[in-house]
Amino acid sequence: MRVPPSLSPKKRANDNDRADTARRLDEAYADGQLSPGEHEERLTTALHATTLGQLAALTVDLQSGTVLPSMTKPRARKQHNIVRFLVPAIVTLLVMGLLIWAAGGRNESDDEVNTAGEQYSYLTPRGLAEVIAAIRAKFGNATVDDLTVYPGYAVVFRAAEDAPLQQLSYYYNGEFREPTDSGTRKDLPMVDLKTVDIMKVASVIAGAGTSLNLSRVDQSYLVIRAGEEEPEVLVFASNDKKESGHLALDIHGSFLAVYPSGQ
């Protein structure tokens, strides 16, 4: 979503704002603007950001469509003849960056497609099962503070082994990267992912467009996190027509609340 320039950077960010920023960071990583380490660090910050100003700071130095507006007054444009020379140069650089990334910047798992020709997604039953199995293999159990899953990657938040009050985040895309410090943990019980009904949750994700009254779904992601009384399972969906909404489920995949687009 694009926030009106008049909005204060101190305004509280919502889940859709965080999702938009995460998607912009993914695009910047894909076209070579961010290194893997920079992408992971900014993504972690975006998922925990509380204000629009914090989110804007994560994309202010990136090329092309920024998710949030600059919090400073933009400079006046230079003469149009300069633009005529700059635009082709920028396009050339972007194309070169995409070619370099496509040649060597992705894991083989990124390019895996199923028999229907669709890109492999971690939001499918198979994808969710892979993520949870990878968590168990790495940590010896499937307990987490938060698991956020996008079609192409997942981010796991857990307590540090040697510092239970410290939270670490782990970016997963076929393999885990080195963890990033995510600050102090909340005093909430961890979620055991073994208790999540993967098939039902994945079916809710697949039908999110209909449930949320969206004309189509261009972006979606899943959050499974600790709650005050019980784990929270949230499915977010949106599209480039500015339609968005989310669903709240229990760990068995049953609906608890629906927040459709426009309501």
From TrEMBL:
The chain crosses the membrane at residues 82-104. Keywords: Membrane, Transmembrane, Transmembrane helix. InterPro entries: DUF1707_SHOCT-like. Residues 1-20 are annotated as: Disordered. Residues 12-63 form the DUF1707 domain. This is DUF1707 domain-containing protein.
